[in-house]
């Protein structure tokens, strides 16, 4: 996108970037590569994302990141230095930025990014929050109340789910709220077929293991099925003691569960998805899921619950299956009805459907904000 004078808009993107790991970091990395083609883009990330004692995993750095393709990135913000927020604001103002995008995904960074947005707006720079999770997954009344206060000082919001859009429209009816599907992650390599399929069905649970994701329900469903021809692979770092999960699986008498409870290299991730017949996301609650887009990248159907963004991204019976949340019996019932052959037949629908989940579409929606702001000036 170019302005009338032929120059590209100057945009600043705030968010975690590699070598920090996790879905939000990968998202920001993929977005800045495409957005950078359509704008004069600067990305501001963290020197330190969280204090060590607050991060449940072993480390928040990706040991496999090779440092390639980073673009114009500045690591300015320090979780233990509030003055770094002021430094970031001054940096953006001096750069001549017209429009800033701030990632919104956790209450921990909400005060800092709300401060940055407020200061930039006072300097005449429009801002939007790119909302991955409007509220933390374990939010009670107080956390939601605080979030609603902090998130108001901005010019607009970009969300992935219709549920999140409806919430923001109800809270801030006078603000701009746009929606675009979560784009598909495309950085994962092609599989080599190193892992061979077992039994009649291969299931995959992938991603950080947290209570709201309902992995315990999936294990209970498999115990109910008691089918020696069904195999489950669990790949992801647990935010609790991983031994608790392994012990619970043993208590249920499950033998066909394969655990990989650590951060996994992308080349191995591709092998796990390639082997899977079905990706299972039995979440108790959700806003969106990057895991679903990885499943679509590898053209795998998804079994998920009727919560959050799954309602927007999964076509029941065509690209996956939707069931009521919190019911291990329904998970078991649906898995029982499936076969490798029936799931394979869903690939053409997934291949066609995933074309709408592009980063180019996401960038177009972002530039739509810029056009709106330009008209108001």
From TrEMBL:
Keywords (alphabetical) are:
Glycosyltransferase, Transferase
Top-rank taxon: Bacteria
PANTHER family listed in its UniProt record? D-INOSITOL 3-PHOSPHATE GLYCOSYLTRANSFERASE, GLYCOSYLTRANSFERASE
Q: Which Gene3D superfamilies does the record cross-reference, listed alphabetically? A: Glycogen Phosphorylase B
According to its UniProt entry, this protein's organism is Leptospira dzoumogneensis
- GO molecular function of the protein, one example? glycosyltransferase activity
Q: What is this protein called?
A: Glycosyltransferase
SUPFAM superfamilies, alphabetized: UDP-Glycosyltransferase/glycogen phosphorylase (SSF53756)
Question: Domain named Glycosyl transferase family: which ranges?
Answer: 196-355
